[in-house]
Design a protein that fits this description.
Blueprint (H helix, E strand, L loop, with lengths): L3 H10 L1 H26 L4 E6 L2 E2 L4 E7 L9 E4 L2 E2 L5 E4 L3 E5 L7 E7 L2 E2 L3 E5 L17 E5 L2 E3 L3 E7 L9 E6 L13 E3 L7 E4 L3 E5 L4 E10 L2 E2 L3 E6 L6 E18 L7 E7 L9 E8 L10 E7 L7 E16 L16 H5 L12 H11 L5 H15 L1 E2 L12 H5 L1 E2 L1 H14 L4 E9 L5 E11 L3 E5 L1 H4 L13 H4 L8 E6 L12 E3 L12 E3 L6 E5 L3 E5 L1
Helix pairs in contact: 4-7, 5-7
Length: about 550
């Protein structure tokens, strides 16, 4: 039986059937084209935006690719808020234009479509920049004309342009931060500035900057910020031949530190000075904001301390509490290091290398006991990663960790003699042995936060590998010190050689040598405390008597 003839006869005889088939075919073609277009659509890429600093009501233009020929369901957002449909005036595959909303905040600019979200660009609301605006800001705002297009961690890149300033002062270079997820709460956490502590700034002139790619940077926009404003960002690519770190599990801590002072009668000119530690910024602790303080500090913009000074006789009822509260963002970090790619140090004359392989008051790396122990542990090993691992394993295999922190004049050099020590001894001895072995290393101190009510002082270390950056090591937790992490750690010994959880709150990265501000003053040093600094209190010579109590840092909230 031939089934085709009735079907074709029906089509031939019925105009309604022919009409339905025709429009069905058209719909199928349209649907198929849309489906194929959606499947082949690519993730948006932003090359630049203009302006980077602008006012609500003005026009913003985004340049790039893969935006789509029509807007359709694609979108643009600034600081997490999507731009309304009525604001757009132009949309093409390579260019978008829209009116900046009245309520815009400083933040990241992102273009999104069904295939994903673009890497961010940065926009600042001119009304919210706390600097004087000149009549023609384009004559003073820094302008970047070129940048080294690819580099690795620690490499020196060159930025050329104008209006950088003849001296750096407080100006900074910001790189895209290596984050698993962008932060919508604090957009500045999505960028990380070159570090003074790592000696990243090499050259600064009005038309050229030489700067090292900082630890914690990743591929993406780079911009220059001066007191006059911020340049438009220019992209650079960062590669990670020795392994790329991952930052995740962000937590925000509200941390308060206090000190109570009681005084007697004294001469009118008698006064005391307190050096209250400021939490340290780093790639794992990128945001440290001073939220509250009392009383008014003498100096509050020192990079390592908030400095208070009080006349003894001005203290009401002879008692005074000095207090400051910080909001601190902290990340867990996994190193993902490739040990075979770690090589020796090509630049042993760099400032960083010499600063962090030299002994100081805290790190006795030139002591004979340390040198003999270092030689015994590493033998003829030349690779810095293998040296550090040998030192770490030796400490954990040969010395017992004491749970109670030692007091008094206890010396870290007691560790090999007594075959036991506390977390401070383990961290400082590890740092000293690494420095003696030619590995840049710094001691770290702060607190471990187990909950809002359980904290205790703690010490660990970081070592530096070329082309990789800082590598955290916590010998005490690696040896089994009691601790309850937010995320369970299956093998602490392996984990804490190269990784760190978000519950380490840094107050010091390295030793802070403070010089007495007065002749014949009386100073107080607090050994084995949550910060590594030479002076905590200083009293003028006229001060007859007073007492102080430094309270352990407390956690007022965890988010």
């Amino acid at each position: 039986m031939n089934f085709k003839n009735p079907f074709f006869n029906l089509i031939r005889r019925s105009p309604a059937v022919r009409f339905a088939l025709f429009f069905g075919l058209i719909a199928l073609i349209i649907f198929g084209s849309a489906f194929i277009g959606k499947q082949t659509q690519k993730k948006p890429v932003i090359s630049r935006i203009t302006p980077v600093i602008g006012l609500p009501g003005s026009m913003m233009t985004i340049y790039g690719e893969n935006f789509g020929k029509v807007k359709d369901s694609s979108y643009v957002e600034i600081s997490g808020s999507k731009i309304n449909e009525q604001n757009f005036s132009f949309w093409s595959d390579t260019k978008i234009q829209f009116t900046i909303p009245d309520n815009v905040s400083d933040g990241l600019v992102i273009v999104g479509n069904s295939s994903g979200r673009s890497a961010p660009a940065f926009f600042a609301n001119e009304n919210r920049i706390p600097v004087a605006v000149r009549p023609d800001p384009q004559t003073t705002i820094p302008v970047v004309s070129s940048i080294t297009d690819s580099a690795q961690i620690g490499d020196i890149i060159t930025i050329t342009g104008k209006n950088f300033g003849t001296a750096r002062g407080n100006s900074k270079v910001f790189f895209t931060a290596n984050r698993d997820e962008i932060s919508l709460d604090n957009t500045f956490e999505n960028f990380i500035c070159a570090s003074e502590n790592d000696y990243d700034y090499i050259l600064w002139t009005d038309g050229e900057i030489s700067v090292k790619v900082p630890d914690g940077a990743a591929s993406g926009p780079v911009y220059v910020m001066t007191s006059k404003g911020s340049s438009e960002p220019v992209r650079t690519a960062i590669s990670f031949p020795a392994g790329k770190k991952s930052f995740n599990n962000k937590h925000t801590f509200v941390v308060q530190i206090t000190a109570d002072v009681s005084t007697g009668n004294a001469a009118n000119e008698a006064f005391i000075t307190l050096y209250m530690p400021r939490p340290a910024e780093s790639s794992v602790q990128p945001s440290v904001n001073l939220n509250e303080y009392y009383p008014e500090p003498l100096i509050k913009d020192d990079p390592k301390d908030i400095i208070y000074q009080k006349s003894i006789n001005s203290i009401t009822n002879h008692k005074q509490r000095f207090s400051q509260t910080y909001v601190i963002s902290s990340y867990s970090m996994n190193s993902n290091i490739i040990p075979a790619k770690i090589t020796g140090y090509a630049d042993t004359k760099s400032v960083l290398y010499n600063a962090y392989t030299t002994p100081d008051f805290c790190i006795p790396s030139n002591n004979e006991t340390v040198i003999e122990l270092k030689n015994h542990i590493i033998g003829k090993e030349k690779n810095p990663y293998k040296k550090a691992l040998l030192i770490y394993n030796y400490l954990l295999d040969n010395y017992k960790l004491e749970s109670k922190v030692r007091t008094g004049d206890a010396s870290v050099l007691d560790l090999p003699r007594r075959n036991s020590g506390d977390a401070y001894d383990f961290a400082i001895m590890f740092t000293a042995l690494c420095r003696a072995a030619g590995i840049p290393a710094i001691p770290c101190s702060g607190i471990l936060a187990e909950s809002s009510s359980v904290t205790h002082p703690h010490w660990w270390a970081e070592i530096y590998f070329e082309k990789f950056g800082w590598f955290p090591v916590d010998p005490a937790l690696g040896s089994g010190m009691e601790f309850t992490p937010f995320v369970p750690v299956e093998n602490p010994r392996n984990y804490y050689f190269g990784n760190i959880d978000c519950q380490h709150i840094y107050f010091s990265r390295g030793w802070n040598q403070i010089r007495a501000s007065l002749t014949n003053s009386k100073t107080v040093y607090l050994p084995r405390s949550y910060a590594l600094q030479s002076i905590w209190e200083e009293a003028s010579d006229e001060t007859s008597s007073y007492s102080s109590l430094w309270n352990p840092p407390s956690i007022n909230g965890i988010y």
